Amino acid sequence: MPSPVSRDGGRWKALTFLCLAQLMVVLDVTIVNIALPSAQHDLGFSDADRQWVVTAYALAFGGLLLSGGRAADLWGRKRVFIVGVTGFAAASALGGAAVDTAMLMGARALQGVFGALLAPAALSLLAVTFTEARERAKAFGIYGAIAGGGAALGLVLGGVLTEYLTWRWTLLVNIVFALVAVLGALAYVHEPSAGRPGGRRLDLPGVLLASGGLACLVYGFTRAESTGWRAPGTLGLMGAGLLMLTAFVAVERRASAPLLPLRVILDRNRGGALLCLALAITGMFGVLLFLTFYLQGVLGFSPLKCGLAFLPMTAGMMTGATQIGTRLAPRLSARTLMAPGYLVAAGGLALLARITPDSSYAAVVLPGMAVMGLGMGTALTPAMSLATYGVAPQDSGVASAMVNTSQQIGGAIGTALLNTLATSATGAYLHHHGASGPEPSGRLGLEAVSHGSATALWWASGFLLLAAALAALLVNHHPGTPAPSADGAATRPAAVS
């Protein structure tokens, strides 16, 4: 029997407001990056502090995601969702009114804290609202398109707001999104009352170990980008992060009410989907990061024109998610969509890796981005749905948090690792061509930047190829087959809700 939620005629309206809130979080990853130079000029902070405006958000968001997901399970998904959206808007207002660097950094950290509540609550509400196969595929297709394309849309919106208004509106615009999302959630978002774990307390040791370990890893990857992978600080942070996460697993195996029940991630299909998501996001960040450098630094695009140049990727992603993934997910196995989708995305990145200082946007960049977006959109729909499929209702929040955590870790790795590879390739190119200065201008400088960006894009394509291979090897779920329940028995998909 379908759940009362899935019979609710307002569930599609609820999806609209859940996606709007998720869009607000995804936009914030890139929309502020476009505005940073203007904010730095206005508030007068250093280049080091500029990096912390980004890092403060990433640390709070990545470190607290699991806790936020478990809070949604324990205290109510809708309640935590509304608290997260409201808090995110308040933090955005604080950042938009910032008078100094400390105030802006504090606001960004608060955005990360409330984003860690909002993101898993929204995805878990989606998971328990849409349980019928066709409706679930359509809902996750729309949600996946928003999650994947929102970062590129952030570049456009950030460019528009910064160029025609002020950098402060890249933060203040969240108030508008949040107001609409909260009013819509109060009217249309519902959740089943059954299926929450007993007790109302978080697993405090698990919270401390998971938050500390994830924060150390995210910060370690962030430092690696600027100080190098072999720097003592980088190695120390990564080692501490891995040690804390290892201890976290040991604690969770014995906890009576664990923060993350290990059954959530040890299932073959869910674990495979999460691993593929992390690899795919690692590769996708290569597009956002290095094509931004290339379009502005080599082709001379303005920030607004650069943002608009990413629209073909967004269009391809939305087409793949809503027209291919959504239509075929109820009929084909997840592996049949995920592996070819990631393979097509890898092909799009290989097309983009052909860039040179003389490349035409229309001939090289546009088709590469469109193909990459089409493949990613096709693969994201079954991947995000499978990552929360078959989870007991009382674990849906923390399972949704794992989706966001895999994306956050993948993004941190992608930014740091690919930037290191690009920088090394650029330096090697200059050395090979006998450059005398560290950053020569003119033709040689353009060729070096293009070579470094192309090298990173080839590596990003490799990450997508690996995701395709793992999807083919690990994922074996077929539509309509029983989903594993909490005790390891099989339950029909309709009964999961």
From TrEMBL:
It is a multi-pass membrane protein. Residues 14-479 form the Major facilitator superfamily (MFS) profile domain. It is found in: Cell membrane. SUPFAM superfamilies: MFS general substrate transporter. The chain crosses the membrane at residues 12-36, 51-68, 80-99, 105-128, 140-161, 167-190, 202-221, 233-251, 272-295, 307-325, 337-355, 361-380, 456-475. The keyword Nucleotidyltransferase does not apply. Keywords: Antibiotic resistance, Cell membrane, Membrane, Transmembrane, Transmembrane helix, Transport. This is MFS transporter.
